[in-house]
Amino acid sequence: MRRLRIVEQFxxxxxxxxxxxxxxxxxxxxxxxxxxxxxxLNYSALLLSEYLGQNIxxxxxxxxxxxxxxxxxxxxxxxxxxEDYLKEITHKYNDFExxxxxxxxxxxxxxxxxxxxxxxxxxxxxxxDSVLAGTIELSSINGILTESIKKEKRQIYxxxxxxxxxxxxxxxxxDLKYIVSKLPDLKSENQAQLFGEIKNQPMAYYKIKNPGWSxxxxxxxxxxxxxxxxxxxxxxxxISISGLCIMIVVxxxxxxxxxxxxxxxxxxxxxxxxxxxxxxxxxKNIFTPHEITFFAKEFNYMAKKIAQSYKELSxxxxxxxxxxxxxxxxxxxxxxxxxxxxTNIVGYSSRLLRQDIVIxxxxxxxxxxxxxEQAQRLSRMVEDLLVIPEIESFRLQFNLDFEDLxxxxxxxxxxxxxxxxxIQIEVDENIAPVYVDKxxxxxxxxxxxxxxxxxxxxxxxxxxxxKKINGKxxxxxxxxxxxxxxxxxxxxxxxxxxxxxxxxxxxxxxxxGLYIVKGISNAMGIDVQLSSTDEGFTVTLTFNDTNNxx
Length: 550
Hints:
Order of helices and strands: HHEEEEHEEHEEEHHHHEHEEHEEHHHEE
Shape: elongated
Oligomer: single chain
Largest sheet: 5 strands, antiparallel
């Protein structure tokens, strides 16, 4: 699988970190804007229908009151005076085309609309058998509608109780037929309501209680385009322009970064092939990061120092190889570590085989236990020696599975003479199983237990803790020990290295324990850290997320 170049990775990161979030943000902002404008359209449609309905209702009511006043005055006049008064009052009130006294049987209600004459008649009682009828031209109602919606581009319809058209600013009968088909059968009175199915083109009605007429406000497709669609287009355009600007700036930056990175790569390649005289020449400008400039400067200085030291290193390399071979051969010197368990095994075996003494059952069991423990110790030392070549050649093989960390800690302590040592185990309840090779992991834990016991000071308590930190299983082994300087800590991971102290001078060992712990742990993806304070020595194992069974 081909590894991506830094420029390709940069473009991928840019795509996922900038382009996709920008598109997602644009969609979200566009939808939020659409919902906001839609609510505004709904609200304005309701408000407009209510406003027009109340204006017409007020207009009719005012004219009704005027007629009532005229009717009251006429009762005090004779026939000839009435005719003169009606002519005068008709001339005075421009709203009325005519005012007449007619028979009561001709009045069909308080208000009537006569489409053939394009007039509206208002009736008020005059006598027991007659009414006063005032005729209003439809142009007066149209004037109210026109005056009220000068800034509105919506379609306005005034319908009577039978849904017949009284007045409108739109003469398209097809639109009226569609709107009437969507009107609810039962309408709320004196309350603006929305109806219709197109959510971005709201329709609203306001039904006047008396005379039962309805004001209809229809939002046209053109209004939708100039509000919702136009706002959406502006948002998309703004995001597109900003995205394009980002892409241009990033492209320029990426170009200069790529050129300089190529120079760095060529310099590193030259060094790796032994050409220590190679220098890096950068293309410096405002887009050149300080870190790359600093790196190039340090690289050129490093190349110069390497060239000077190369000859000296070549001479010393032969000496180091001889020393490494010498230290490798010292594995044979660890055979003295076998003497103690072998001596115990031979001694207790001979004791059990003696015929000249009587040995009680408890003594036999104790002797057999010691023989078993020393045999196990001998077996562990052999395993430690056998695993070294595999660590050095990176040929460690594992049979991985999820294992109980707490149980493995208890088994490791049990196999290291825990009864003779003050060992405390603390395991958190939320510790997850770890994905390891159980046998190899036991080898690591036993080595750490034996190391803690061997170098523990004054038989102090040895504390083993297993807890979860930042989602990772962490195991610590603590034992009392003199403080080890920080510059000597990492040396303990080397073969045959033992830091001089009062304990190490009196305690024998192969110097391989921590080397084996480090090799096996790293091969299984487990981080090993050492720390030392005045209180004691701590080994910390940190299991990566891939080692945890989440």
